[in-house]
Amino acid sequence: MIGSRSKESQTFIGQLNVSGCERSELTELPEREVIRRAQLGDASAFERIYRLHSRRVYALCLRMLGNWTEAEDLTQEAFLGVFRKIQSFRGESAFSTWLHRVAVNLVLMRLRKKASQETSPEKSSKGNFDCGGPQKELGGHDLRLAGTIDRINLQHAMGQLGPSQRLVVELHDIQGYKHKEIAQIMDWSVGNSKAQLHRARRRLRGLLDETLRLDWVTHTHISYARLNER
Fold first, then answer.
1. What's the whole-model pTM score?
2. Which end of the chain is more exposed for a tag (fewer CB within 10 A), N or C?
3. Which of 71, 103, 69, 73 is nearest to 85 (CA)?
4. CATH of 128-230, one of 3.40.640.10, 1.10.10.10, 1.10.3470.10, 3.40.50.2020
5. What dotted CATH number matches 1-117?
């Protein structure tokens, strides 16, 4: 089912076949006019919308799913849904807010489906952001490698949050949405958005502190073992 939707979505985007001249014309137009043209069935306008917003939608899907292929599949599916529903957009909120709500609904549906199909507890305990291959011991002065490890730790910690908390961190702290916009995307109150973010940040701090403690204990144990070998 997922594979067939992915092929349909990719075929849809590939069939837009917009000329360079049409693209150039649309870059000069305000987004409101581009949306109006897309609602009238203008393929070049819809491609412009895709180019403007696809990276942020993809980033959201990737952060939530932790898998590049699934994120690409869901991004295409989200824009296919937007194309089908764009007539229903009335401008009562920002277009990006409306678009992200479509994407969020798809993400939550996918997560529920994955949870219902999950058969092995070990799968979730390993996390979705696996770099592949064995982890190497860190040299104390490689700042670039240390920064990479920090990002991996953050991604792993994000993966341990519940879907709603992951979404509110992604939307507020990473993509820069205000609580009012998040409330519209998630169909929450503003107060609930703030509370979810507060709980998510507190949980992240706890997870990252725990990771740092484990790293320190492991590093100390290795150093002590090496001293005993000399």
1. 0.68
2. C
3. 103
4. 1.10.10.10
5. 1.10.1740.10
